[in-house]
Amino acid sequence: MSNLFGKIGDLNKLRQQAIQMQQQLEAEEIVVEHGDVRVVITGSQKIKHFSVQGITSDEAVSALNEAIKKSQELAAKKLQSMSGGLGGLFGGGGQQ
Questions:
Q1: What's the pLDDT tens digit per position in 11-54?
Q2: Neighbouring C-beta atoms of residue 90, cutoff 10 Å
Q3: How far is the C-alpha of 52 from the C-alpha of 44, rounded, in Å?
Q4: Which residues are CB-neighbours of 33 under 8 A, at least 6 positions away?
Q5: C-alpha span between 45 and 23 (Å, rounded)
Q6: Which of 69, 37, 35 is nearest to 50 (CA)?
Q7: Burial of 50 (C-beta count, 10 Å sphere; 0-12/13-18/19+)
Q8: What is the pLDDT of residue 96?
Q9: 29: which strand partners?
Q10: What span, in angstroms and rounded, lies between the C-alpha atoms of 92 and 96?
């Protein structure tokens, strides 16, 4: 039984490391400029700034972030289906 608790502790440690890595990625910024287009995005793939010829649009930033989020959700679903339902072990809910 103690082996089970050890594995749970290992999973919790991995989860904490993942949270810490996510926080570090959110603090990073990548700036890309191509001609009149400028994009600033975080390491966690959230667009902070988008402009074309110096003109920015909050609606464009919102739409781009929504598209990125949907693509991430799709990827997560695909990975979850590949894991054979093991996502529940990592805090993803699911069946026991």
A1: 888 888 988 988 888 899 999 999 999 999 999 899 999 999 99
A2: 14
A3: 23
A4: 39
A5: 12
A6: 37
A7: buried
A8: 38
A9: 42
A10: 11
The Cα 75–Cα 24 span in angstroms is: 21
Give the sheet arrangement for strand 47-52, strand by strand. Answer: 29-34, 37-42, 47-52, 55-56
DSSP state at residue 44: T
The span from the CA of 75 to the CA of 16, in Å, is 22
pLDDT tier, 90 (very low <50, low <70, confident <90, very high otherwise) = low
Largest CA distance in the chain: 63
Length of the chain, please? Answer: 96
What's the CA gap between 89 and 5, in Å, rounded? 13
Residue 16 sits at the vertex; the CA angle it makes with 46 and 29, to the nearest 5 degrees, is 25
Q: Within its chain, how far is the Cα of 94 from the centroid?
A: 20
For residue 29, what is the DSSP state?
Answer: E
Structure tokens at 27: 């603090």
